[in-house]
Design goal:
It is built from 6 helices and 7 strands. The protein is an alpha+beta fold and 321 residues long. The strands form 2 sheets. It has a 5-stranded mixed beta sheet, with helices on one face. A hairpin with a 2-residue loop joins strand 6 and strand 7. The longest helix has 56 residues. The chain is elongated, with a radius of gyration of 33 Å.
């Protein structure tokens, strides 16, 4: 056989083999693309959480599938997070709507009885006092909601100054002392022997103490202790009281927004008080924690003492006053 002819035949066979191999690879790639498209369409229509598979691992197809799976997983995680947040917002709106409507409905009822009923002046004065209390409750709820919204938006800017935490803590307790006595238990107050100085925003510090005292009044049933001490370079506020309305399973959620253990229809709280305590403390370089031991519920709020490396963001916020 003629050598040139033999060489030509060999090249032709080689070309045919290469053509067949390329055709097979092309068919596999097309099938893989159709397979991926089919799974992507399925994921778009009904997200089952199943990742893409590599039916024909040719060339860089496997790497392509791995990259697409990472993108799908990130998308699913973002979608799940968004759905959780949306559920949380819906529940929050329902909760705050209920809390605001309760005192409004009560105030409206007493006003209607005052206007349309044949009541004595004494009874009208009694109903008017109740209406004022309900409006005060409503005003307090709206104030808490407004402050919490500003905290979450980063707009509750604070102005740091050196304050005597001992003096301010004692002054704030004095405003609530009669409320504890009226409820039936006189709190034990423990203060350091020397001034406890911290770098903090005065109105924000006062708001933290007020919210802690209101929480103790609402949930406490006795054995109440209000203390301020210095420990390990920190000023530590501790409010503890016996309670029957708080359980162990509540502790991890104590500082969550709108969380409350009061399920009564006439509750006077939005569940934002302790969330505000935690948020304000964090902005002043501190932190808040809660514990329940043998029926004694306690909250500790820690602030760095003057001279430490605490950071307070922003400037004075008039809304905190």
């Amino acid at each position: 056989m003629n050598p040139p002819y033999t060489c030509f035949i060999f090249l032709l066979i080689l070309l045919l083999v290469c053509t067949v191999l390329l055709s097979v690879c092309l068919v596999c790639r097309r099938r893989q693309l159709r397979h991926i498209l089919k799974e992507l369409w399925l994921a778009e229509r009904q997200d089952t959480g199943i990742l893409l598979t590599c039916a024909y691992p040719a060339g860089q197809t496997k790497e392509l599938v791995l990259v697409l799976n990472r993108i799908l997983e990130k998308h699913r995680q973002s979608l799940e997070r968004l759905q959780r947040e949306n559920r949380g917002y819906r529940e929050s709106i329902i909760s705050i709507s209920h809390d605001i409507r309760t005192p409004m409905t009560s105030a409206k009822g007493y006003l209607q009885m005052t206007c349309h009923g044949q009541l004595s002046d004494e009874k009208k004065a009694e109903y008017a006092a109740i209406v004022l209390r309900r409006l005060d409750d409503l005003s307090g709820m709206l104030d808490q909601l407004f402050l919490y919204t500003r905290l979450k938006a980063g707009e509750a800017l604070l102005y740091p100054e050196e304050i005597n935490a001992s003096s301010l803590f004692a002054d704030t307790i004095a405003l609530f002392y009669d409320d504890f006595v009226i409820k039936g238990f006189e709190p034990e107050v423990l203060l350091p022997s020397k001034p406890c100085r911290i770098l903090a925003d005065r109105p924000a510090f006062t708001r933290i103490v007020e919210n802690l005292l209101r929480n103790a009044l609402q949930h406490g049933t006795g054995e109440c202790q209000l203390s301020l001490r210095e420990a390990a370079g920190e000023a530590v506020i501790c409010i503890s009281n016996r309670t029957v309305s708080i359980q162990k399973e509540d502790i991890p959620h104590i500082f969550d927004r709108f969380y409350t253990t009061d399920t009564s229809r006439n509750r006077k709280t939005t569940g934002l008080g302790l969330a505000i305590v935690s948020g304000l403390a964090a902005q002043m370089g501190g932190d808040a924690s809660a514990a329940l031991n043998n029926g004694i519920f306690s909250i500790e709020v820690r602030f760095p003492l003057c001279g430490s490396s605490a950071t307070i963001h922003g400037r004075k916020n008039p809304a905190l006053k």
